[in-house]
Amino acid sequence: MRFVWQFLAVLAAYAIGGAAIQAVKDNDWLTLVVGLAAAALVIYVYAWVVRKTERRQALDVALEGAGAKFGWGTLIGAGMFSAVIVNLFTSGHYEVDGLGSVQGAIGLVGFMAGAAATEEIVYRGVLFRIIEEHIGTYLALGLTGLVFGLSHLLNEDATLWGAVAIAIEAGFMLAAAYAATRNLWLTIGVHFGWNFAAGGVFSTVVSGNGDSEGLLDATMSGPKLLTGGDFGPEGSVYSVGFGALLTLVFLWLAHRRGNVVPFGARRRAAGADSAATLPR
């Protein structure tokens, strides 16, 4: 029953925040403010509903050390996407024509922050965490990663390959990051860093949602296997490769820290018992 209450609570915050961002999306400064407020709202609602339904503090969104964890996550996500762009640039498939829009990038900070926080709370904070308690880390990672990827089929220029790519490079990777750290600030940072680098810095299409106006005025061309086509670089084999590699790194860390939940070994993955050693 706690799953239902938590899912409904964060979904309501997700809907409210998303509607507010859409209402101001034509104003970059308002998008910045509303996007950050939407992120704060869904995190607060998650902490509140966990406290009410599980009679404990939501340690995975504790404020202590949140800035550092979010910062490290942002560096990981931005670095990962930058590696994709470097490969596309050196192979002649990404060209920079000049500077883009600073104001557009500012608006994307809010938009991407709202999207990263709400999606991480829903998919990793509620879905992965609770499902993992029942079927273990690996099955929960696979199941929620696929659901996360398939949810992107609703986007404007979605493709089945794009959804599969998102499942591998983001759905699996972010669940593995949560398993390794038991901290949502880090996964929110990774998600935000990836998305903001894609749209706010390199001005590429993000998950098939159309062109972004970021810091660079750039164009991309070449085979869909490398560029992702209309879906954007998230449909690139480079993205899938880097995401799969990072998934393995995070799973190795999860094993090393004893954070992998075996199938049939029911326990609260982010509960009070793990508070002494997690997150690192």
UniProtKB/TrEMBL annotation:
Source species of the chain: Streptomyces tendae
Keyword check for Chloroplast: no
Domain of life, per lineage: Bacteria
Regions crossing the membrane: 29-49, 70-90, 102-123, 135-154, 160-180, 192-210, 235-254
Protein name: Lysostaphin resistance A-like protein
UniProt KW keywords: Membrane, Transmembrane, Transmembrane helix
Stored InterPro entries: Rce1/LyrA-like_dom (IPR003675)
Keyword Membrane assigned: yes
All residue ranges annotated as the CAAX prenyl protease 2/Lysostaphin resistance protein A-like domain in the record: 106-196
